[in-house]
Design goal:
The chain is mainly α. It has helices at residues 2-22, 29-40, 53-62, 66-69, 71-94, 98-118, 121-132, 135-138, 146-154, 157-184, 191-208, 216-225, 232-270. Helix 1 runs antiparallel to helix 10 (157-184), helix 5 (71-94) crosses helix 10 and helix 10 (157-184) packs across helix 11. The chain is globular and about 55 Å long. The model has no long low-confidence stretch (mean pLDDT 83).
Length: 271
Amino acid sequence: IISIFIFSIFLRSNIQKILLEQIGIKLSIKENMLLFFAGLSMIITPGGSGQMIKSYLLKEKYDCPIMKSLPLVFFERFYDLLGICIVILATLIFIFSIESLVIVSVLIIILSVLVLIIKNQNFSQKIYSKLKKIKFLSNLLPDDSTFQESMLIMSNRSTVLKASISIIFITLLDGVLIYFGFLALDVDIGYLKSIQIYYTSLLLGALSFVPGGVGVMEGSFTALLSKENLVLPLIISIVIFVRLTTIWLATGLGVIFSYVFSKKNSENNLE
């Protein structure tokens, strides 16, 4: 489980690298990994929005304008949700679930609307204006079209295709991790069923906008597992174990690497 987790993180960080290179920010593999882990420290914020800390760190360490890299967080979350939707749709071919169908349908509509919005310059300018009103960001955001330019560059056809293929593979790989989590507690409901239940619960947590989906994800996960004729103590054990080996492990490692990233940045400034 740990080895799959680490490999998955490496692959996800590569998507970050691809997106950054599209806007002219080139990091070494080591620097890219440190930045990615630093972002994971804020993954439990609503919608993962706290990962905007990566734009701040890029500004501090590489003097990269915040608005230039800010779209990175949006697209990473977009691809995460896209990958999950596609995988759930694939599982529905073999195992039908009305809950999964409803949730994924709602999210597909939301993602479709977001795609249309990305191409709308007026909307992007409105987002920029709202960000300028935030005290912390007001003095850091330049008065130019950098944000809109980065959004358009990151959404070009070749980048979308490359990132989409990668995230589908990563989502399926993460599914193996989840399935092994079930097997670790001697529960085997099948790979497809395991990931369908997990990802449906994950989407519910994401749509709730509760930080990390805490409470909502666990509740829906428990409710869906209860249909598999498992006793409650075992269900709770599965939920806790899976959460510990996914979001909480990611957050813990993120905090550690965020500290390392910040420390190195401070040392460089002193030099």
